Amino acid sequence: MKAYSIHSKQSLIRSEWSEVSIGVQNGKWCAMRDLNKHTCQMNTDSLWMSPGKVYVDLEFPLYKVDYLAPLVRRFIYRGCTCIVTQVPIYSKREMKETYFAYIDELEGIAIDYMVVPRIPLIQLDASVIRFFGLQKVPFIIVEVTHKEDLLSKSWQWIAQAQHPSFIPIVPVYQFDEDTVTYKDWLKIAKQFGVRTLPKPLDEKPLSIENLRVTGISPFKGEFIHLGDADYNLYSIQQTKEIEAPDQMFYHKAIPYVTVLRGHILRAKLELNDYSGCGTHRSISIPNHFMY
């Protein structure tokens, strides 16, 4: 793959506008000094740039559809270059088979993907945590059906089982969230030393805090040397009245161009999703960034 450099006067980094100069080589971000002095530079004067977005498929789960491509295109339209997709685990006996079968099912989709288990809280135990820690998944989603289940769980044993992988555990509520907030969960996690995510999961791209705690960053979601060269380019007109862009602005912004590991995935209305260049990814170091 041909190397090139990017100089963007307006890039969205950690919800702030910054100037970025960075190189792309072999599908990875690199320092400008690592490039040949004759390397071509991309002109981004009329565009602003952001890292490729990383979504969890909470709003539109891939496992619920028979045909993956249309739903994956919906994520690409938003600028997603890596999707964290849930696989429901209803039986610990079939846990391994279910997990590996779902990974095989996703082979050939257009964007990179990570698979995380979604398991009822009552099924969560040391064997589940150890297995998925070894698989280097970014986190475990637990379904909480009743408030009492969250309060009565033996979290001290769960915290012990998280060693040495430190795989985070994050709840999704199947009841009225007004009765238990995510802040309430964070208090429980702090009390028993349970590794979790600092921000709740929702329909928006994963926050920088969650990307770092899970170990998805530095390989996805940031402009970091040796990370994947995933990025989006947008019309600069969209930012004229934006002084303090938040995560919702980032979620709603629709890119003109989406690039995955240096490959153009989408350019305006043209979508190159037939080559199936997405690959299954795992985190190399669990909980790479501590918080």
From TrEMBL:
Superkingdom to which the source organism belongs: Bacteria
Protein name as catalogued: Uncharacterized protein
Organism listed in the record: Pontibacillus yanchengensis
